[in-house]
Amino acid sequence: MAVDLHTHSNVSDGSETPSEVIRLAANAGLRAVALTDHDILAGLDDARAAAERHDIEFIPGVELSLDWRSLAPDADQRGGMHMVVLWIENQAGPLQDRLADLRLGRERRNHTILERLASLGIDVPMEEVLARAGDGSVGRPHIAAVMVDRGYVPDIAAAFDLYLGHGAPAYVSRKRLTVEEAISLARASGGVPVLAHPHTLGFEDDSRLESLLRHLHSTGLIGVETHHSAAEPGRRRILRRMADRVGLVPSGGSDFHGTYKPGIHIGVGCGDLHVPDEFLEGLRAQRAVL
Ligand code: AMP
Ligand code: ZN
Ligand code: FE
Ligand code: FE
After folding, report:
1. Closest ligand 1 atom, residue 8 Cα
2. How far is the CA of 55 from the centre of ligand 1 (A)?
3. DSSP-derived pairing of the beta strands 223-228 and 177-178
4. In this structure, are 201 and 253 located in the same domain?
5. Residues 224, 198 contacting (CB under 8 angstroms)
């Protein structure tokens, strides 16, 4: 059986409601699914209730964007380090308490992005972005969607390539947890920290990636996504062997965002993803000894 340990709902930058995400996971024949919205836990209660109706195991989660300059001086020129935290509950706790702060940082950043776009002659009203996002965690995909609606770009990918992505003219960074803070807050909150989609770190050289993973393991990281929609099957095998060598538990998921990332489906990713349930059991075993 398969699982999917990385998905997004419309509580952050996915298009489907939390209960729809769960329904899709159950329809796909998955044994378990995690909801991992960006910086927000507001979808977890509905998702859990839906999971009970659909008789599928639910793992509450969250995804964080990290500051990793302590590990690579050129981190910000490379790419994003994201962390999925599994088994994080929607209640008070050390990590939970920091999320409100991160969402405030997002809000400020989003305003600055719209100012930059305006200076480039692109008019994106905040009301339209907020209307797209609902009352959850607002992100660049919502801004991108309004740019598409208004005819400035043909699709969301073009909005990122031309304007919003790293290195593009309206790119603005925001407040992030450091990787060390994130690992320790996650563990102190009973969550299992997993490095998401390692390809976005931008290492062309696997030996550098491997030494980084080794270091993160010694800092308290528990898992790494070896299986992700953006990794080819051959790449998944390489990453899985690397995870074994450095002592990290393999994890994986589709990173489903609904219509915000067309072509990526729950459970199967672009079609060839299969995250075995032994990954979930490996992570659960580590959770038990946190
Ligand atoms: P934010 O959380 O607002 O910084 O935006 C992050 C979201 O933007 C994540 O869902 C990413 O998957 C998405 N994203 C980042 N870069 C790109 C890109 N080049 N094309 C499409 N989506 C992207
Ligand atoms: Zn997202
Ligand atoms: Fe991510
Ligand atoms: Fe994600």
Report:
1. 10
2. 31
3. unpaired
4. yes
5. yes
